[in-house]
């Protein structure tokens, strides 16, 4: 009987890496250096325009003019505007999804509240790091991720859906050991994602002064988990199903 090959990992299927722009010449050579400079010029110009006008308000002509290169140069490195957005998004997507996977694995092993807090703190720290290292890309994601999944916005919406799926999954794992209140994971998980994304957009848009972004991990973790975790004292709450309706005794 033939041995069945294991299916590809979910991570590999869901989040393929962004294609790397074609590299002329040996790495580190003159042509490679020129390529990097042009790619960075296109990426920087595009990001600034996207943040100012939105994805739909920017054309490839706008990008090449702002970058100071010919339109043909754009197509030497990117197939279209969606490919450029994918290239911008890649480092943030990779770091964030790896952090969410690691959090889920840590929650599977967590047996007490402190271990649960540490798992969530690790994800919050990754979010804070992304804000510091890639503030423009994070802001672009937050501005565009709830729009229709068409054109250049497709990859951003895909990441939003992956984040939501992972958030529900890790919430379900936290429920496994009875560490959270019996609220349906899809409700609490998506509520947390929505609250965190709205807070981050306010921070990056400078709508509110929240102080040092590096202090966000502990603040977010405490705010969220103090509301979701089971209380330590007093009589246990009435047993309820995860859809919020009363369960059987």
UniProtKB/TrEMBL annotation:
It comes from the Bacteria. Transmembrane segments: none annotated. The keyword DNA-binding applies. Residues 59-78 bind DNA. Pfam families: TetR_N. Residues 36-96 form the HTH tetR-type domain. InterPro entries: DNA-bd_HTH_TetR-type_CS, Homeodomain-like_sf, HTH-type_TetR-like_transc_reg, HTH_TetR. Keywords: DNA-binding. Residues 1-34 are annotated as: Disordered. This is TetR/AcrR family transcriptional regulator. It comes from Archangium minus.
């Amino acid at each position: 009987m033939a041995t069945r090959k294991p299916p590809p990992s979910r991570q590999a299927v869901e989040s393929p890496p962004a294609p790397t722009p074609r590299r002329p010449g040996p790495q580190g050579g003159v042509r490679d250096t020129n390529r990097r400079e042009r790619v960075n010029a296109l990426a920087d110009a595009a990001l600034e325009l996207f943040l100012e006008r939105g994805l739909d308000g920017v054309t490839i002509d706008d990008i090449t003019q702002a970058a100071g290169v010919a339109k043909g140069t754009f197509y030497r490195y990117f197939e279209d505007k969606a490919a450029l957005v994918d290239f911008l998004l890649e480092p943030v997507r990779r770091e964030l999804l790896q952090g969410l996977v690691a959090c889920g694995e840590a929650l599977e092993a967590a047996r007490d509240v402190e271990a649960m807090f540490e798992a969530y703190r690790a994800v919050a720290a990754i979010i804070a790091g992304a804000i510091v290292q890639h503030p423009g890309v994070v802001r672009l994601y937050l501005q565009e991720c709830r729009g229709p999944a068409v054109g250049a916005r497709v990859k951003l919406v895909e990441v939003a859906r992956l984040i939501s799926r992972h958030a529900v999954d890790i919430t379900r794992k936290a429920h496994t050991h009875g560490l959270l209140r019996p609220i349906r994971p899809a409700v609490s998980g998506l509520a947390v994602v929505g609250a965190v994304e709205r807070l981050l957009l306010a921070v990056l848009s400078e709508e509110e002064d929240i102080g040092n972004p590096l202090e966000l991990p502990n603040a977010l973790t405490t705010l969220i988990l103090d509301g979701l975790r089971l209380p330590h004292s007093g009589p246990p709450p009435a047993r309820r199903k995860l859809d919020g309706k009363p369960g059987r005794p």
